[in-house]
Amino acid sequence: MLRSLVLFLTFLSMSAHGADWSVNSQESKLGFFATQVGAEFEGQFKEFSSTITFDETDLANSQVKILINIKSVDTQNSERDSNILNAEWFDSKTHPSATFETKEIISLGAAAYKAKSLLTMRGVTKEVELPFTVQIQGNKAHAKGELSVSRTAFGIGQGQWAVGTVVGDEVRIFFDLKADAQ
Predict the structure, then answer these.
(1) Can you list the domains of the chain with their CATH numbers?
(2) What is the pTM of this model?
(3) How confident is the model at residue 45 (pLDDT cuts 50, 70, 90)?
């Protein structure tokens, strides 16, 4: 009886331990793919914080919130990076961060999921669905996902930039996160 109780308590502590995750920012990427004059480029946000509770056996209580520092954008082009921050684009003085927050996580089977979420950029919040995968081995997790959004639906690209002739309207947001159980 005592042995069964010890095993049960060990199982509970392992389950609770595996539900909260800390992202390893050195091994993770959060960014986007966009097009400029027909050529695709990649941008990354070098600074972001996250609160992640994920348990594949308890999706109802799993949730993710990510806060992105817009000023940490890096597209490997300093002129483009500077322009992205100005009032016509992200307006980082007024809106220094973007947020992603899940409302519901649904299993699609075989380590695949869909997150019904709220994405806020430039002060505009839209509902989005993010397909993603998670591989968990012991105390390590690796999650990847991507979704496409219309930048103009978030007010990104004002004035002459509101048309997709120079900079395309569709932007693919991606993440490749590695995390450790807390």
Answers:
(1) 2-181 (2.40.128.110)
(2) 0.87
(3) very high
